[in-house]
Amino acid sequence: MQEEIFISGRNIPHIDPYLEVWHFPISLYLFLGGLAAGIIFFASLFTILKKDKEVPTTVKGAMIVAVVAISVGLVALMYDLTHLLYVWQLYMTVRIESPMSWGAWVLLIVTILSFLWVFSYSTEMFPKWDWKFDFLKNFQAYLIKNRRTLAMILLPLSVILGIYTGILLSAFNARPLWNTSILGPLFLTSGLSTGAAAIILFSKSHYERRLLSKIDLALIILELGLIVHFLMSMHAGSAVQIEALDLLVGGEFTVMFFVFVVILGLIFPALLEGVELMGYKVPVIIPALLILMGGLIFRMVMVEAGQITRYLY
Amino acid sequence: MVIDTLKCVGCSDCVVACQTENNVPIGYCRDWVTESVSGSYPTIELELKSERCNHCDNAPCVRCCPTGASHIVEGGIVLVTADECIGCGACIESCPYDARYQHPDGYVDKCTFCHHRLEKGQLPACVSVCPTKCMYFGDLDDATSEVSELLKSRKHKVLAPEAGTKPNVYYLI
Fold it and tell me: How far lies B5's CA from each of A139, A244, B34, B60, in Å?
């Protein structure tokens, strides 16, 4: 038996008794970043495949959602910075070793390109809106002509953005729950799935909803597989990782993780989508909202539980 | 840095000296003392340790820092440039020793091995005040230095070696 205590009275705010440096805004950002990455991925993919006319919501309405999500996510991210006035230092350097550094760059580029994307569709979406200046109209015409090029740049960037939300956490070997490389693919899959759910939520076209439901179903099955993989890697991990797994299996996050994320956020909406694809009528809003809720709670659980896991004390 | 756990009495003088020397805000500390009891009665063992940033060779905080505010200076000390720190908390998350904290002014702060004192040829504040002289500070790269000699002659350990950070604070046991 070993017992270790501080005898010099250490009780640093946000560090003791357990780490609480990253709060809800970070979870929210990871969720919105993944969601935006998902929408941008599908919009780019369908544009490259020249199917953009068949999925109008994906390339138009949903991209507005993506732009809003990414902007709110950025604000949330900045809200959690404690030395905010120096935020420009992020863009004074590129550090390949630090996921946050290249992630910030990717995020900046994706945000700008997504705004350009929405701008290129703005006249089509809001015919009454007039951009007044000629150079703006010329620029819009130029963007419309080069939409496929834009999509080709955005497709890999959206994948990087989706993976980045997971890699950001898995880069920290000091937090055993995060320190597994499966987190990148897992967060990417979850991001793509929430992105598809958001498109389904806003789409009015039956064909589009059905297509994305099928994609979403496949993604959810893949995500469930990755979660099993994640739990197995923890179970077969080092002592600190086995301890970390106890938080999710039998510990204080069990209900949040298994009931709200796995069952209500993945299995139940997958069943509903499956039933709908078989021809039964299910209000599309239910599975879509459940998937979005599950995605957000998943990130909250991971951010909060991860910070409790540590090596010492 | 080498700390003799057999000589430490856990008086916390090092903690107070650090707080005074470095003007550490109230409620915060850059070093701390732990007491660990192991074994079961009647064969129990008590170990006292003064802990702080380990100024790791493979520092995860330096690797994770997105701006380069966390850096290793000549001699191996890990420092934070307050004007480059954005307060993202990545380094705090990455530290297996939880040696860093967000200063009330926003930037991230930690033990500097009293870099400002070293430049003047003085010892870190914690080392200089230790009443039992259980702390030794010196150049581990110099094979003839006091710290190197101690590590050659005494049994020692580091904290959480499994985290792979190659820490530079050694404990004589």
Answer: 70, 30, 11, 26
Interchain contact B93–A (C-beta under 8 A): yes
Residue A76: its chain B contacts at CB < 8 A? none
The three-state secondary structure class of A88 is: helix
Stated pTM of the model? 0.93
Is the CB of residue A241 less than 8 Å from the CB of residue A234? yes
What total of structural domains would you count in chain A?
1
The CATH code of the domain that includes B42 is 3.30.70.20
Minimum Cα–Cα distance from A177: chain B residue: B93
In 3D space, the residue among B64, B108, B89, B84 whose CA is nearest the CA of residue A92 turns out to be B84
Residue A16 lies in a domain: no
pLDDT tens figures, B20-69: 999 999 999 999 999 999 988 899 999 999 999 999 999 999 999 999 99
Domain interval for residue A197? 24-308
Residue A19 resides in a domain: no
Tens digit of pLDDT for each residue in A20-58? 899 999 999 999 999 999 999 999 999 999 998 999 999
B103: domain range? 2-172
Write the pLDDT tens digit of every residue in A171-190.
Answer: 998 999 999 999 999 999 99
Residues B92, A21: C-beta atoms closer than 8 Å: yes
- Establish if A96 touches chain B: CB-CB under 8 angstroms: no
Whose CA is closest to A100, among A30, A153, A23, A52?
A: A30
**CATH number of the domain where residue A145 is located:** 1.20.1630.10
Query: Is A82 part of the contact surface with chain B (CB cutoff 8 Å)?
Result: yes
Residue of A3, A18, A80, A172 to mutate, interface with B, max B Cβ within 10 Å: A172
